[in-house]
Amino acid sequence: MNSLWDVARIEPGSRSGLRIRIHPGVHPFVRRELLTYGRWLRASYAFPVRVNVYIPNALKIRASDGELCWGRLLWTGEMADPAIIDVAGGCKAVEVRALQNHVWATIFTLTHELSHYFQRLKGVELTPRGTEWQATFWAHRVMDEYYEAEWDGIDDWEAE
Q1: Are 22 and 31 within 8 A, CB to CB?
Q2: 27-85: per-residue pLDDT in tens?
Q3: Is residue 4 part of a domain?
Q4: Which of these, 33, 120, 16, lies nearest to 73 by C-alpha position?
């Protein structure tokens, strides 16, 4: 269990959990891998305040400051309000290796933004650079855990 992502002492809000909505135009392989990752996240971590994740079929999305980026977190920080994460899911890749790299980058972006969610949830106060560094650090840790996960129950997930 990763310490930033450990929320055992935080009381759940009225609505909790992780919800992932994927645009129908997103590549089917990307869609399948993101949904599998979402199931693993729900089984491995608690989300005491609802997180709605949207994966549009776009190569980049526009951040609040007008810049183009791959992911963003929108959340007022009020426990009653759900957090919203947007992650660009569009892909031009046609080769298998490029598609796999795109999936891994998209999952990493989602994990990075979820790390920002846990930072806000726990009230972590750092410099802007420190905030990004910590989110990247914990995203790598969670991704390593996902990569090393036991996949005995994967067949059960496909049946759903």
Answers
A1: yes
A2: 999 999 999 999 999 988 888 888 999 999 988 888 888 888 899 988 876 767 888 89
A3: no
A4: 120
CA distances from 83 to 10, 95, 97, 126 (A): 16, 34, 33, 20
Name which of 6, 39, 160, 30 is nearest 106 in CA terms: 30
Structure tokens at 51: 């997180």
Report if residue 108 sits inside a domain: yes
* Full-model pTM: 0.85
The CA distance from 6 to 125, in Å, is 17
Pairing of strands 71-74, 83-87: antiparallel
d(CA 145, CA 43): 13
Number of domains present in the structure of the chain: 1
State how far the Cα of 115 lies from the Cα of 95, in Å rounded to an integer. 30
Query: Does residue 47 lie within any of the structural domains?
Result: yes
Chain Cα centroid distance, residue 151: 20
CA distance 125 to 101: 32
Pair of tokens at residue 18: 């992780």
